[in-house]
Structures are given as structure tokens and as C-alpha cells.
Write a sequence for this structure.
């Protein structure tokens, strides 16, 4: 029995206890997210278990490396009571934190389909962060209680009053202790790296996909603190593959656009308009897409969590057997009078990824662009370009000033006037706060219209809506007036749709309104889904995207794939901007391509969404190819179908992106107008 009380055995027993604890955390994670993850087929249990054990091992060793060293140090100090107490508190606090991170994961994943990483910790800068955390904890009290029980098991199982015994004395004590220390160190290092193979780099988040082809189940395999510690500092680390030499890369893909050199696109009734399926510039049949909206005001609505799934116009197939035909009747009617991107995709699943994508045509991949230190280099986004063209630039968000980093990025993008909750309450009082995020969308849209009515034209304005965000509440006066829907969010979506209707009703007759080009685009999909398709790529990136001109001069639809990064170049084309600019997207009217694609980074793997396929790329090779209608990814076509053009485009885009990030270069080197925003930023 003395053997069972040795330092080594007690250490092993306490490490085994951590495996039990993380297993329980994973059970809680699955219970909270079973609809997103889906059933776990019996045939996949073994690979899922192997993957889970590997990532749990890395998590345990990451956070307990110092504890292992303390337990195995070959000195008699480890038998001292004060040393044992120090070990206990390290073990209890560090691993309780790991449990807390996994409980946060269980809740966070439900809304983002992303594990909790270092990005969330370092970007949690809301002024009301503590208030929100407390509210989320109250709403998810069962998860909090489960975490407390697991932590209690952790402390109880440690048996801190167990006194370790020593089997050897004298020189044998130091020799055996040293051997155990060296063995423990080697095993710890190997475990943190993910094994003792000859792999050139330690295990990463993307390794979870080795155990399952399903993205949701791959995420289920992961555990914290691995996700946090493995991503800490990644925002500054630039490591990427060089697929092409510089000359070849520029020939395949370049973010430098030179509109003055392009061939004008013919009028809408021409059969040579290859980029757009249908484009009607109804007021003047001699107009071209380039410059047809010159001089217009521009208003971009960035809509919180507006999945294409909400719209019966975008996805009529989802409502064929439903009594309620969608939850956005007003916006659907606007699409019928505007230009609709039938297959618009988000670049990511976080709001902060949407802003650089929409305003700057800069995507985010492994790390959100704005969280990278390299993002501080000068850029020349859409607002800054229009500011140099004589536009006033405004940003509206009903949250507290400075929250979520939106205003900071707006300033960097060339927006000079920002309006927040504080500005609204100065004019309209404090009765319209939703209790969570900011001012209700209806009231704040009305406020935006009031401000724009007194703003000198032309202007660029963008608003970020809030009311369709968790916790999915609407003003008390509207209780019972909107359909509950098929998800927790549908009632809120219907409320926001009505807020748009009221905005258009009030301001539709005003002069500034009639001279404005409105752009509607979601930041990302909703966390709440009712269709099986929207729980999997590519549909879990499909969002609202359309443009509306009050005089109906811009009508039609685009049936091919488009993404958020295409908005800036397309708008510049419509506005007739003829100088060179920097953008990773394309002007869909004036820069047609044979291989339209939307690119994102999903659960640690690159994805290219084309008209026909979902192509998944692991930085080395195309690993998976699925037909876009293969909802569950049941048939991998990688061995049957070749997509050389898509693969080449994806590689070139990735290399070009990271080359520019590494060099902190997001502008065209051509001379800019005197006194431009970019020149000011450079100085």
C-alpha cells in the first residue's frame, strides 16, 4: 500500500482525475450543443475518443506542467507541508480555471460555432462586460451549476491530506527521483506537442479534423485550456506557405485594382454582361454598371445575425412546407425592387470580422484581422476613399461608445463621425436601452435618419444593428405582435424587419433618401438555426446581401457566389471610382471571373465556396470536396473531382493575404490625391 502513496503514484492518480473532469466537461458541452453537433454515430466513437484523449492530454499538460515539476522535483522539500499546500492550490486553481473555460465554451459555442480562444479574452473590452457575463451566467445557471459540481469533484478527488511516502532513502532517493523527473519531463513535452512523431510543429486546432470529417464534431473533440493557450500570441505570428514566386502570384491574384484600365461593361440589356445574371439599369439603357450610381449617398446596414435562412425570398425551399413564409417580409419586398446577391457568404462568424470585410475588402482567416498587430498599418478603405471624394463619413451603433472595438475600427477606416448610445440618449433620453447591448434598433434607426437628414451631402453612413443578437428580446410593447418562429431569434428578426419598414416609411420621401444607394449585408449567420443545412458549411455562412436604389435604377439578381469582401469593389465600380485601390474582393459587375468563390476559415481549415462545390484546404492540399447540396458531407469527392482553378485561386489568395499582412502593406503604391486620408495616416 505504501506504493500507492508515493509521489509518482499520487501524481498519476491526480492526472487521471483530470481526464475524468475534462470528460465531464465534454459531456456538458455536448448536452448544450447537441443540436449543432448532431448525433455521434457509433462507428465514429473510437476515433472521436482517440481525438478527445489527445487534446485532453495536451490541455492537462499545458496547464499542469509546473505542477508535475513540483511533484517530481528530486528534493526532500516536496515532503514539506507548505510545499504540499502550494501544490494543492496550484492544482485546484489552475484546473478550476480550465473547467470554467470549458463551461464558457459550452455557452459560447452555441452562439458562434467557435471554441473559446485567446481572441475572446484579449478582445473582451466592452464597458459592460461584467454585466453581460453575469446575465449570461444567470441565464445558463444549469451550466454554471454543473461547472461548480465538477470543480467540487476536482477538489474532493485530490485528497490533499494524503501524505506522500518515500520508498527509498539516501542516494537511491535522489537517483529514482531524478529518473522520474526526467521521464515526467519527456512525457510532458511529448504530450504537449501531441506525440513523439517527427512532425515539424506541435499539435494545432486543425488536427481535430484528422479524427472526423464533420466540422462540428471536430470542434467537439477540442478542449480548453488548449484552445486558449495554443492561440495566445498567434495574432502576431505570421507563418504561411509560399506556393508561387512573386511574378506568378501577381498573375494569378492581386488585391490591386486598376479601374481606369478596365473595359467598360455594356448596358444592362447586353448579352455580354457576363458577371451579373440580371442587371437592369432602368432609367437609362445607355448607362454602364461602372459609374451608374455616381454621386449617390451610400448607406450600409450591417445586420446582426441575418442568415439567409430567415428569408423566404433567399431560401424559398426552406419554407415550402411551412405556414409562416419567412420572417423578413419587408426586406424580401425590397429585394424584389433592388439588386440581390442570391448566394452571399460571410467571411467569418464574428461581428469584428465583418467590418474589415465589408468596409475594407480585407478578410480574416486564422485570427480576426483587427486583432493582429499588423492591422495597425495604414489602409485605404471605402469610407476613407469616399472621404477623399468629398463625402461626409458617419458610423452608427447603438451600443456604448467604444464597445466591441467597432468605433476604433471605424476611426481607422476613415469615418470621422460616430454616433453611439450616449449620443442617442442626449437627444432622446434613457428609456430605449435594451438592457443588454444598446438602444433598440427601431429607435436607433430613426435617430440615424434624423442625423442624416441634417448631414451635408454626399455622405457615407454605416449602421450596425443590435436587436437580433442574443438574448433575443424585443420591446415589451411588441409582445405577441411578431411570430415566435422556428428559432429563438425569429421573433427578433421580425422585429428588426419591422424597424426597417418604419425607417423607410418615415424617411422615404426625403431628398437625401432618394439620392442614396442602400446596401444590406449581415455580419454573420445566426446562432439559432432550424434547418439541417444551415448547421453545416457552406450554408452556415450564407447571409443577406442586396442593394437598393429608391429610384429603382439598380435592379436584378446575381445567382453566383459572392462574399462580404466583394461589396467595397462593387460599390466603387457603381460610384464610378477610377483610381487604383486595394481590395481582396472583386467588382462583380466590372471584374467578371470564371470561378467565383467565397473564402473563409472554418474550424481551423480554409474553405472555398464555389457555385458547385465546397472545397476544404489544409494549407498543403485540398483535403475535401463536397457538392454544395451534400448537406451532411456524406460523400467526399476529393478522389473523383479535380478543382485546379479553385485550388490555385485559394492558394494565391492565402499567400497574397499573408504576404501583405507580413509586410503591413494594404495600399496601392500609386500617388494618392493631395491631402488624402491615407497621406494623413502615413504621417
Amino acid at each position: 500500500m505504501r506504493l500507492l502513496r508515493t509521489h509518482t503514484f499520487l501524481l498519476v492518480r491526480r492526472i487521471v482525475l483530470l481526464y475524468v473532469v475534462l470528460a465531464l466537461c465534454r459531456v456538458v458541452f455536448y448536452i448544450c450543443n447537441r443540436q449543432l453537433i448532431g448525433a455521434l454515430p457509433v462507428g465514429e466513437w473510437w476515433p472521436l475518443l482517440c481525438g478527445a484523449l489527445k487534446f485532453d492530454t495536451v490541455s492537462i499538460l499545458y496547464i499542469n506542467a509546473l505542477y508535475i515539476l513540483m511533484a517530481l522535483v528530486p528534493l526532500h522539500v516536496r515532503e514539506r507541508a507548505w510545499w504540499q499546500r502550494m501544490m494543492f492550490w496550484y492544482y485546484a486553481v489552475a484546473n478550476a480555471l480550465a473547467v470554467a473555460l470549458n463551461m464558457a465554451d459550452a455557452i459560447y459555442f452555441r452562439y458562434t460555432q467557435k471554441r473559446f480562444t485567446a481572441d475572446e479574452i484579449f478582445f473582451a473590452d466592452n464597458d459592460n462586460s461584467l454585466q453581460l457575463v453575469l446575465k449570461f451566467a444567470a441565464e445558463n445557471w444549469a451550466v454554471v451549476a454543473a461547472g461548480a459540481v465538477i470543480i467540487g469533484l476536482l477538489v474532493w478527488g485530490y485528497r490533499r491530506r494524503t501524505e506522500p511516502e518515500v520508498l527509498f532513502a539516501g542516494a537511491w532517493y535522489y537517483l529514482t527521483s531524478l529518473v522520474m523527473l526526467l521521464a515526467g519531463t519527456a512525457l510532458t513535452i511529448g504530450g504537449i506537442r501531441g506525440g513523439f512523431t517527427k512532425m515539424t510543429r506541435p499539435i494545432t486546432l486543425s488536427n481535430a479534423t484528422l479524427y472526423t470529417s464533420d466540422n462540428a464534431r471536430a470542434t467537439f473533440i477540442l478542449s480548453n485550456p488548449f484552445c486558449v493557450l495554443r492561440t495566445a500570441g498567434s495574432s502576431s505570428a505570421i507563418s504561411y506557405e509560399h506556393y508561387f514566386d512573386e511574378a506568378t502570384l501577381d498573375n494569378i491574384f492581386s488585391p490591386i485594382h486598376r479601374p481606369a484600365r478596365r473595359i467598360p461593361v455594356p448596358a444592362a440589356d447586353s448579352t455580354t454582361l457576363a458577371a451579373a445574371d440580371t442587371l437592369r439599369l432602368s432609367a437609362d439603357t445607355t448607362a454602364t454598371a461602372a459609374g451608374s450610381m455616381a454621386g449617390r449617398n451610400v448607406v450600409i446596414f450591417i445586420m446582426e445575425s441575418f442568415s439567409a435562412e430567415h428569408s423566404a425570398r433567399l431560401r424559398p425551399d426552406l419554407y415550402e412546407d411551412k405556414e409562416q413564409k419567412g420572417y423578413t417580409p419587408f426586406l424580401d419586398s425590397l429585394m424584389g425592387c433592388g439588386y440581390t446577391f442570391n448566394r452571399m457568404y460571410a467571411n467569418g462568424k464574428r461581428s469584428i470580422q465583418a467590418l474589415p470585410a465589408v468596409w475594407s475588402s480585407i478578410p480574416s482567416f486564422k485570427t480576426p484581422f483587427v486583432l493582429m498587430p499588423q492591422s495597425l498599418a495604414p489602409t485605404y478603405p471605402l469610407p476613407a476613399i469616399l472621404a477623399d471624394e468629398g463625402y461626409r463619413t458617419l458610423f452608427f451603433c447603438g451600443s456604448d461608445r467604444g464597445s466591441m472595438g467597432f468605433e476604433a475600427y471605424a476611426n481607422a477606416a476613415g469615418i470621422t463621425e460616430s454616433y453611439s448610445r450616449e449620443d442617442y440618449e442626449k437627444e432622446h433620453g434613457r428609456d430605449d436601452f435594451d438592457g443588454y447591448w444598446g438602444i433598440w434598433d427601431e429607435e436607433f434607426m430613426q435617430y440615424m435618419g434624423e442625423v442624416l437628414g441634417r448631414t451635408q451631402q454626399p455622405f457615407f453612413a454605416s449602421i450596425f444593428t443590435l436587436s437580433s443578437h442574443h438574448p433575443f428580446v424585443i420591446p415589451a410593447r411588441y409582445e405577441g405582435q411578431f411570430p415566435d418562429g422556428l428559432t429563438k431569434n425569429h421573433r427578433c428578426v421580425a422585429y428588426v424587419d419591422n424597424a426597417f419598414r418604419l425607417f423607410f416609411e418615415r424617411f422615404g420621401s426625403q431628398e437625401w433618401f432618394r439620392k442614396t444607394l442602400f446596401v444590406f449585408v449581415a455580419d454573420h449567420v445566426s446562432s439559432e438555426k432550424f434547418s439541417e443545412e444551415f448547421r453545416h458549411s457552406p450554408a452556415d455562412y450564407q447571409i443577406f446581401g442586396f442593394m437598393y436604389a429608391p429610384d429603382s435604377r439598380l435592379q436584378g439578381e446575381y445567382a453566383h457566389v459572392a462574399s462580404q469582401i466583394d461589396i467595397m469593389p462593387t460599390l466603387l465600380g457603381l460610384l464610378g471610382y477610377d483610381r487604383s485601390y486595394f481590395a481582396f474582393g472583386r467588382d462583380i459587375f466590372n471584374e467578371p471571373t470564371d470561378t467565383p468563390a467565397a473564402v473563409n476559415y472554418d474550424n481551423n481549415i480554409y474553405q472555398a465556396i464555389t457555385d458547385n462545390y465546397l472545397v476544404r484546404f489544409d494549407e498543403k492540399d485540398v483535403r475535401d470536396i463536397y457538392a454544395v447540396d451534400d448537406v451532411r458531407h456524406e460523400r467526399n469527392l476529393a478522389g473523383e473531382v479535380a478543382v485546379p482553378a479553385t485550388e490555385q485561386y485559394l492558394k494565391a489568395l492565402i499567400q497574397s493575404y499573408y504576404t501583405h499582412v507580413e509586410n503591413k502593406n494594404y495600399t496601392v503604391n500609386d500617388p494618392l490625391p493631395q491631402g488624402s486620408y491615407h497621406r494623413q495616416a502615413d504621417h
Remarks:
- Confidence is low (pLDDT under 50) at residues 263-276, 282-287, 672-683.
- The first helix runs from residue 7 to 37.
